[in-house]
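Re-running HTH-type transcriptional repressor FabR to confirm reproducibility after the cluster update. Everything else is unchanged from the original entry.
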Amino acid sequence: MSSTKPKQSRKGNREKLMNAALDLLAEDQSGLSGISLRRITKACSLSPPAFYSHFTSMEELGLALVSEAGGALLGILKDVGKVETEAAVINTSVEAVFSYIKGNESLFILIARERAGSSALIRAAIRSEVRQIVEQMALDFEGRGMFGRFSLPEKEAAIAAVVSLGLALIPDFLDVSNTSKVDGDALLSQFEYQVQIILS
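Result of re-run:
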C-alpha cells in the first residue's frame, strides 16, 4: 500500500511566508523593497511558485501584514475599552498596545518603515487601518459616555492625534527598550502623559 505525505495546508504555507518575510525584515533595514520573493520562499523551504498560491506580489504580502497588525491592535483596544475609568483606559491602552508591539517587533518595524515607503497601496492600507482604529475607539468612548467633554468629531480628532503620536514613537521605543527596559518604560510614561494632555 502506498502512502503519501499530507500536503501543507494553504493557510499554513501562507503563515510561513508571512513569518519568513518578517524574519527577513528584522535583518534588513531597507523594508519590503530590500527583500526578494526568492529569499522569502527559501527561508521557509517553499518553491517560488508556491508564493503565488497565496500572494500575487510582494506588495500584496505587505498588505496582508498591515491588515494583520491593524486587526490585532483593534482587538486589543476593544478589550481595553471595557476598563471603567478614563485614566485606566489610557494607562491600560498604552501598556497593552506597546506590549503587543514589543512582542511583534518585526511587524511594527515594517509598519513604521512603510508609512513613508515607496508603495502607495501599502501607505493607503496603513492609513485605512489607522482610520478604523480611530473611528472604533471614538464610537466606543461615545457609547460608554467617556471623555464626554468632547463631541464625537472631537473625539476622533483627539484619538487620531494620539495614534499618530504613537506610530511616530514606535522606532524609538523599540530601539530604546531593546537596550534598556527602564528607558523604554520612561518613554511610555512620557507618551502616556502626552495622551492625558491631548484627552484632557
